[in-house]
Amino acid sequence: MKQYLTIDEWSIIEESFNPQTQEISESVFSIGNGYMGGRANFEEQYSGHSLQGSYMAGVYYPDKTRVGWWKNGYPEYFAKVLNSTNWIGINVEIDGVPLDLATCSVTAFRRVLDMKEGTLSRSFTAVLEDGKEVRVESLRIVSMVRQEIGAIRYSIVPVNFSGTITLTPYLDGDIKNKDSNYDEKFWNEVEKNAEPDSGYLTLKTKKLDFHVTTAMAFDILVNGEKLAIPAEAIQREKYVGATADVTVQAGDQVVIYKYAANVTSRNYGLGQLVEAAHSALHSAREAGFALLLSEQAEAWKAKWKESDISIEGDVSAQQAIRFNIFQLNQTYTGEDDRLNIGPKGFTGEKYGGSTYWDTEAYCVPFYLSTADASIARNLLIYRYKHLDKAKENARKLGFTKGALYPMVTMNGEECHNEWEITFEEIHRNGAIAYAIYNYVNYTGDKAYLGQYGLEVLVEISRFWEERVHYSADKDKYVMLGVTGPNEYENNVNNNWYTNRIASWTMEYTLEALAYLQENETSRYHELLDKLALQVNETEKWTEIIAGMYYPEDAERGIFLQQDGFLDKELIQVKDLPPEHLPLNQKWSWDRILRSCFIKQADVLQGLYFLGDRYDLETKQRNFDFYEPITVHESSLSPCIHAILACELGYKEKAYEMYLRTSRLDLDNYNNDTEDGCHTTSMAGTWMSIVHGFGGLRVQQDRLILNPSNPGHWTSYAFKIMFRGARLNISVTDKQVTVANETGIPAQITIYDKEYTVDGKSSITAEGITVTA
Length: 772
Ligand code: BGC
Fold this sequence. Notes:
- There is one protein chain.
- Among the domains are: 295 residues, Distorted Sandwich (Beta-galactosidase, Chain A, domain 5); 196 residues, Glycosyltransferase.
- By secondary structure, the chain is α+β, with helices and mostly antiparallel strands.
- Helix 11 crosses helix 13 and helix 11 packs parallel to helix 16.
- Strands 1, 8, 9, 10, 11, 13, 14, 15, 16 and 19 form a ten-stranded antiparallel sheet that branches. A five-stranded antiparallel sheet has the order 7-6-12-18-17, with no helix packed on it.
- It starts with 10 loop residues before the first strand and ends in a 7-residue tail after the last strand.
- The chain binds beta-D-glucopyranose.
- The site of beta-D-glucopyranose has 12 residues, from loops.
């Protein structure tokens, strides 16, 4: 853990310049708006280590797969989120010498991510090799209101000299993905134009024909006055810019406002791109930077009104949860149902910006509770639209029926190519089914089942039916050759979680069928026809549900992660020399696979999902056995452990796990934040407060709360939307207060006692020792 950022309630602050942490900061300070975003690269040139990154949601490249041995069923490509035109660049020269923080002495450096208002700022004093000193301040936004717009205010004051400051704002499309399989560039130039105060660049991807037009315009002011500074337009391949020489006296302030618009062929016809970019650009420039800033602050105010969590008495925990919520809100806004949430959002290339089971297992609950139900519904419909591709995928692998959703996807096709994950980590199908349950259970929108949900459930159940088989030896249904959520085991037999989620899916599918038969009879019959669902199929599911094999150890009273788990040498993580961690950077894969060490919640993931089916003692025995051998080397791990630890009353463990999930990127726990932030796991952090400390569940149309206080906090409060009502739930040591901010009443159970919270009123559950 390397804590170098200043603790603050609403901001992430870095107070000195350190080239060693530059790439970590580039990830942490990233900004975006759901439509586009990028890493916190410097505007001016920087010759030190840096991962330049600017991304447009949904614009990707099918990079030809690179594998040692081709195996039937491998996907043709691995989808890469595309590093797109760098629109933030403003190079600066001081009397002909580049301003480059890698080559000058930097003092008074401060970088701030203001999460309340959605801005990224930076200030520093730099002394160049020739002794000239400048004071620089920059302020940047990616607009939450005008999704295509980014804007920068960049100011320079020559402190101890008079001379010439040369500014070169530019657009650079000559960029490469760091993770390109064959070291190729993915973009071709289509057209460009550069003028003395503006320019544009259209690029298209070498495959799939995505077009992106980026247009920029800028204004230069000296001491507050806009000057008609003669600038010279520059053009070269995939690059446009303009260079302006500004003559300055010591103490003058030179400010450049740079506006950029990014539009893509996902939203416009090819012939409309340039005009669309210019129209967005001109209206932003006309509005001016100050108005863009105030719009931004208003937009974030509204987001915080719906999703803030406040924590009193622990600023580090407060900062962390706001950071997680901020990143989630700037990664996915739910307005475009073709988009999803990549594990790194707009903060890096790793994991290709593609969709993983992370969305259903971790992100759906966050959006369900903090936004209109249509947003989570869009995430579900995304998978509905991919159903045909998921069926195709199952056929490719030799299944005669059913659907296997991809482990990693952009457009519904599988684009992950490690056999042990692509072919074996099939539990993702279960998470997709579970998200349907979660959505219907939380929102009460049962109509979703008839509209979209049932088709997905039936095809997933069909897949499970064919994937299990009857073992005469065990007289049970078994599932061989899988990888569970714990990716530190591959090709195992009877992974408890996978068997459990498979039979649960069949059970829920039968329940959904029964619901439709009774309540939407004509739609039910329509769907039976559409799906050609046979009675012998549903009978088979019932048989599998009753006869599924679940490995367990009766003596210890635990479920076994897989057959033979107890043959392993059982060593606890606390007994490992610290220098062996993280295992994935220190140990060979062979050693990891043979060991008992667990990457992330596996059995415990099942006990969290299906929490209402297991008693506390069962959860406790399994937690006590598995947590001590879990290394939490997936960012998705600590949050599930935090939630279960809360339920079990393990307050210190819950708090430890909370800090680990919430400060994962801020403190670079897993030593990999320079690749990008762990955006999808941030939803898990939110879950660890709301489902963990808040104890929120929804059962039979009622909101259930069982709050606890980790003991390090004076109080905490979170907001949730539930069936149209927005509730502010605050928890102190002695009481739980629920304030209903809307006019719609809500039914709530707090510690087994039932309440109705009328519109615009609040209730308090008192006489409680929350910390007991
Ligand atoms: C985890 C997976 C997860 C992926 C993307 C991996 O490290 O083991 O469960 O889907 O990261 O977040």
